[in-house]
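@channel sequence for tomorrow's demo:
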Amino acid sequence: MTKSDLIILGGGSAGVAAAIRAQELGARVTLINEGIIGGTCVNTGCVPSKTLIRAAEAHHRTGNHLFAGIESSSRIMDFGAIIRQKDELVDSLRKAKYSDVLAQYDTIKRVEGQARFLAPDIIMASGQKYNAPKIIVATGARPWLPQIPGLQDVNPLTSTSVLELDRLPESMVILGGRYIGLEYAQMLARLGTQVTLLQRSDYILPTEDEDVLGELTKYLSNESIQIHTGVHVEEVHSDGDGVSVNAIKDGKKYVVTAERILCATGRRPVTNDMGLEDIGIRVGQDGELFVNDTLQTNQPGIYGAGDVVGDPAFVYTAAYEGRLAVDNALGEKPTQRDYTALPWVIFTDPQIAGVGLNEKDAAERGLAVDVAKLELKDVPRALAARDTRGFIKLIKQRGSDTLLGARILAPEGGEQIMEAALAIRHGIGVSELASAFHPYLTQSEGVKLCAQSFERDVKKLSCCSA
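C-alpha cells (generated this afternoon):
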C-alpha cells in the first residue's frame, strides 16, 4: 500500500490547486485522476468555448459596425481550421498549466485511473491501494441530459461535444436558457447556424433582474436567435436528416425542427461508482457531495472542492476551494468559504457581469436598497466606440454608503466588474467610487458615473466636472 499525507481525487482546477498548496505546506501528495489532466475548464469549458466565442465575435463585428465610410465583410472559409486552432490552444495550455506544472514537484505523485473508496483513508485505483489520513474529493462535474422521451436516440450534443464539431450545422435547437445555452446560442448564430432556444422557465437566466433579461433577450433576438421561454418539451425524435422537438407553451402544442439538438441543461457532479455511500459519505439527489462551510464532509478527514460540491461552478472558485480544503485538512484552525464578493461573467455580447446582490436578491432578504442605473449611451467611451448597448447598475443599502451589489450589461462588462467586487470586499463606499480618479474615455469611468448618479444627474455634468 502506497502511503502519503494527502490523497486528492481529480486533476482539474480544484485538484491541481490543492496539490500545489499541499506541497507548499510540506505534505506528500498522491493525485489520482481519471482521463485527461486539467478538468473541465481547459479541456471542454472556459478555454475552448471562449476562444470560439471570440472567433464568432470577430466574424460578426467585421460586418456589423456603425462607423461611417467603412465597408467590410467576413466569410468563413474553413470551419475546421477554427476548431483546429482551438484544439491547439487547449493542448498548449493543458501542457503548460497542468502537466508541466505538476512535473516540477517531486512530492506530488500522479496516478491515472478511476478511484474508489475502500475505507475512509484507503483508495483503490488501477489495482493499487493508496492510504492517507486526509482525502480531498475534487472529481468535478459532467454534462447532464434531461429525461426527455426520444432524446437519447437523436445523438444530442452537449456543452462538451458541440466544441468538437468539424462541420457547422445549418440549424440547431438548444435546450436551456442559462449561461451555457446563451453563450453557445449566440456563438453558433454568429457563425451562421439558425438557432432556436427553448427555456423551461418564464425567463432566460431566471435568477437575474428583469431589466437585465429584457435587454439581453432583445439583443439576442436582433441577431435572429429565436428565444422561446415557458416551454415544456414533451418529446424529441428523428425527422429525416434532422430532429423534431414536440413542445407545449401556454397550453398550445407546437413543433420545432433543426439539423441538430444541443442540451445546455446543466451539469451533474461526478460521484458515481466511487464507494462514497459505502463509507457513509452523504451525497445529494444530483450526486453533489455534501460539505459544510469548511468543505468537510460528514466523514472526518474527507473534504470536497470544486464542481463536485455544487454551485458556484467556476474555475476560479474551484481553485479557491482546492486551496481552502488543503488548509483546513492540514491546518489547525478551519476557515469558512466566503463568496460575499464573488464576481462572475456570462460571455454573451454584450456580456453580463455581476457581483453581490441584485434587486431580486435584496427583496427576498427584506433589504431596503437604493439603485442607480446608468445607460451606456451616457458613457463617453461607449459613444466613441459607437456601441451603447447595455447599462451599469449599482445597488446600495438605503441610508448607507455600502455597496451591496452590481450588474453590468456591456460589451466588455467582465472587465468592469472588478471595481465593484473590490469595493464590496474591502468596504469601499459608493461615495469613494464616485470621487475616485478614472481615466477619461474608458469603460471603467462608467462605474464612477453610475456611482455619482445616486446623488446627481450626470447628464447635467460636463466631462471635467464629472
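heads up for whoever presents: The domain at 344-460 is CATH 3.30.390.30 (Enolase-like; domain 1).
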